[in-house]
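Dear Dr. L.,

I hope this message finds you well. Following up on our conversation about the binding site, I have prepared a predicted three-dimensional model of the protein together with iron/sulfur cluster. For your records, I am including the exact sequence and ligand specification that went into the calculation, followed by the C-alpha cells. Please feel free to forward this to your student if that is useful.
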Amino acid sequence: MAYDYEKSIRPGKLPHIWCPGCGHGIVMKGLIRAMDTCELDRAKTSIVSGIGCASRLPGYLDACTLHTAHGRAAAFATGVKLADPEMTVIVCGGDGDGTAIGGNHFIHACRRNIDMTYVVMNNYIYGMTGGQFSPCTPTGAKASTTPYGNPDPIFDISKLAIGAGATFVARTTAAHPREIDKLIVQGIKHKGMAVIEVLDDCPTTYGRRNKFRSVVDMMKELKKNAVPAKAAAKMTAEQLQGKFLTGVLFQDTEKPEYCEMYQEVINKAQGA
Amino acid sequence: MAKKVALLQGNEACALGAVYAGAKFFGGYPITPSTEVAEVLSAELPKVGGKFIQMEDEIGAMAAIIGASLTGAKSITATSGPGVSLKQELIGYACIAETPCVIINVMRGGPSTGMPTGPGQSDVMQARWGTHGDHAAIALVPNSCQEIFEETVRAFNLSEKYRMPVQVLFDEIVGHMRERIVFPEPGELEIIDRQPPSVSPADYKPYDSSKGQVPPLAAFGSGYKFHVTGLNKADDGFPTTKAELVDAEERRQIDKVMDNVDDILKNEEYLTDDAEVIIWAYGSTSRSARYAVNKLREDGIKAGLFRPLTIWPFPEARTAELAKQCKAIIVAEMNLGQMIYEVERVSKGDCAIGGVFRVDGEPINPGQIVDKVKEVL
Ligand SMILES: Cc1ncc(C[n+]2csc(CCOP(=O)(O)OP(=O)(O)O)c2C)c(N)n1
Ligand code: SF4
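The resulting structure of the complex is given below.
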C-alpha cells in the first residue's frame, strides 16, 4: 500500500517550491515517515528552520512550525526547547544555513547537547540564491561565485558535529531514502543533540554547472561514494579515498542533556 | 506592613522589574555596562522556575528569546549598543512575526567599541530605525533606579499588549548608579499578559486581526499548531505575495502603535505651564536638566522641563504644543544630536531650537544647559 503522506501535509500547502529532482523532497518524506514512526504529537512538536530552499520544509508540515532568519534556526530552537522541554524539537535546513552563517549556533547547540534533532540537507551549494558556493562545496567544483573552480576546503558537517559535542551523529544520502527515516527516528529517540546529515542534490544550481547530465547521475554519484561505517572499518585508506561514511557515526548516551542540567539549576535555586 | 526597600543599581532594578513583570526567560551575551542585568537574572529566574541562558552571541540571544516567547515564556535580553547592532535583523523578525519580547540597552558611547565604561545616549535613533524594512518601534527611557524597575514592567506590558519588541534604554550612569528603591507589592503594578486565542486550535489564525489590531497569540506546545515566518504573510501565518495582503499587514503592524500613542506615551513635565524656554531631555540627562531649570528660575528665566519616558513613538503632539507656547526648546542629549531632529521636525519653526550635546564620556552638567539657554534666548 502506498504510504499516506497527505495526512502530515498541511492542507492546501502543496505544490512545494522545490525544483523537479531536488533532493529536499526526499528528505521531507523521510522526516514524515520518521515522525509517524515515533508517533509524535504534532501539537507538541516544533519544526524550526532558517532560510534557504531546504528551510521551506516546515511550512508544509502540520506542527508548531517556525521559519526563522538565515542561519539562526538552532538558536531559535534552543529558546523553544528550553522554554518547554516537553516539546519535541526538530531543526532542518541547508548546509549553508547551518554551517556558514549559522555555524556558531550549530556548534554551540551541539556543545550544549540540547535535546533536538537537526536534519542538515547538504546539497553542497546555496540553492535558493542561485548556486553560490557553500562551506560544503567540493574544492575545485563550479559555483556561480567560483567560475575558476572552488578554492575553498570543505567542512565535514558530521565531524564538525561530533567535534562540537553532539551526542548522536549520523549521515546518509537522498539516494538511500529508507535510511533517512531510520536515522531520524534514532535521532528523535536519542536524548540530546542529534545531527543527521543527509547529502542530497541541487540539480538546478549545482548539477548543471558541474556536468551532471541528470538527477539520476547525481544520485548515482551519491550511491557510489557512500560507504556504510561498518564496511569502512574493513577498508584501506586508499579504498576510502573520495568516499564518505554513512549510518550512525557517533553516539554517546552518557553526556547529560542540557534541559536536564538546567532543571538541576532550578532545583538548586529553589533549595530542593 | 512596611514596603521592602533596597539600595540597588539601575541594572539590578531592571532585572528585578523583569521578574516582577513575570519574565520566565532570559537569553543574553555579556557586555559592559549591561552585564549585571544578566547576572541578577541568572540567580533570580530559576528561583521562579524561569530559564536563563547565556548564548553564543547577541544574535543567538535574540533568536532564543523569540523562540521562547513563541513557546509562551515572557522573554527578555539585555545588552549595549554593539549588541543591539547585532540583534537588528531579528528585531525586525520579532516585529513582523509579532512576537512580544523586551530588549534592554544600557547605552555607552561611540560607534563600534567606543567607550565601554562611559555613558552615552547615542542609540536612540538605532532604537527607532535599527532594523531593515518599515516597522513601528516602542522605546522607553527611564532616568532613575526606581523608574528602571517600573519602566521594565511597563515594557513587558506594552510588548505583550501590542505583540512586539519593546526596548528600554538607559545609560551607563543610571545603570551603575545606586539608589534607594521601594519595591511595589505584588499586584500593585498592573501586569499585562498577551491575549490568548478564544477560538479552537482548528480555527486559530495567528495573524487574524478581524477582532482588533493585535491578534491573539497562542503558545507552541499549548495545543495550537501554527506557522510563524519572517516572510510577509496572510492572517493564517503562511507566506503571501498578494499585494493587498502585504500592504494591509505592513500597515496594521505600524498602525497598532500609532493608533494607540495615548496608551503608550508617558512623560513628565516640570514647571512647563508658564515656561518661555523648555529643556527637552531624557534619561540621566533629564536629572541635570531639572537642576538647570531651578537655576534658571533663580536667575529669573522662566524655564521648564519636558521629559519623555517613551521616546518611541515620539511625543509629537505635546512637543508641538510646547513649541507654540515657548520661545525656545533646548534639547540636551549625550550624543551629537539625535532626538533634536525630531523636535525640529514637529516644532515646525514655531520656536528657536538649541542643542546641548556631549560625547566625551562625561555627563551633561546643569551649567552647560544654563549657558545654552542664555545663549539662545
Ligand atoms: C542575512 C541573510 N543573508 C543572506 C541571505 C540570502 N540567502 C538566502 S538562502 C541562502 C543560502 C541558502 O543555502 P542553503 O542553506 O545551503 O540551502 P539551500 O537553498 O541550498 O537548500 C542565502 C545566502 C539571507 N536570506 N539572509
Ligand atoms: S534550487 Fe536547488 S535546492 Fe533549491 S529547490 Fe531547486 S534544486 Fe532544490
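In brief: Residues 20-269 of chain A form a domain with the Rossmann fold fold (CATH 3.40.50.970).

With kind regards,
A. P.
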